[in-house]
Amino acid sequence: MLIKDEDVDMSNTTSAKSKKLYDCTHCDRSFRWLRNLKRHSLTHNQSKPFTCDQCEFRSNRKDALHNHVSNKHVDADKPYKCEHCALSFAQRYTLARHMQTHAEDKPYKCADCDFSCKFESYLKRHLSTHVVGKAPRSDLKPFRCDICEYCSYDRKGLRRHVMIHTGEKPYTCADCEYKTTEKSKLVRHRKTHAREFRCAVCEYKTRFKAQLTRHASALH
């Protein structure tokens, strides 16, 4: 029968008596291998230095963070991928609509002026400008996304929105690999580096999470 060191208490086994055991100082668990003891010791540590940059998830184990990102933030729910860019979509018709943004022609034309566009919905929105007494939506939010129905009051809002489609994250942390679309989020993230991060295995401590991650990877 296969016995896993990390899953059982080996203090009473016959094989354990003939080998050196590594005892946990926080509970009655014992381990044949030091690496398993180190991994187990993390469960007693209250600090959680490994933080997901996409949600509020935190962990005291790097592999747990990796598993979280793989399970929660993958694009498995968007199987339809554009062959011209990096975007992917949940529905086939959404992909088909997006593909029109890569086309040169604008088949939907206004009968009252020279306006033309790629989508029928855009034409309908434009036609409202020819209705007397009705304020067109484009007057309220003139900056429009070419990929979806989003409209913005200003160009800055539109640029920030387009980053959702392109995946662009121009604001980068100088101390770690964190990236974001908004400066305010970067400022909030930078405050995390002001804290003191301690190693769960040894006495090492640092003000920067990235340095703690490198330390743990290199030595533990």
Automatic annotation (TrEMBL):
One of its GO terms (cellular component) is nucleus. Its main location: nucleus. Residues 22-49, 80-107, 108-135, 143-170, 171-198, 197-220 form the C2H2-type domain. GO terms for biological process: positive regulation of DNA-templated transcription. It comes from the Eukaryota. Gene3D superfamilies: Classic Zinc Finger. It is found in: Nucleus. Belongs to the snail C2H2-type zinc-finger protein family. This is C2H2-type domain-containing protein. It comes from Photinus pyralis (Common eastern firefly). The lineage of its organism: Eukaryota, Metazoa, Ecdysozoa, Arthropoda, Hexapoda.
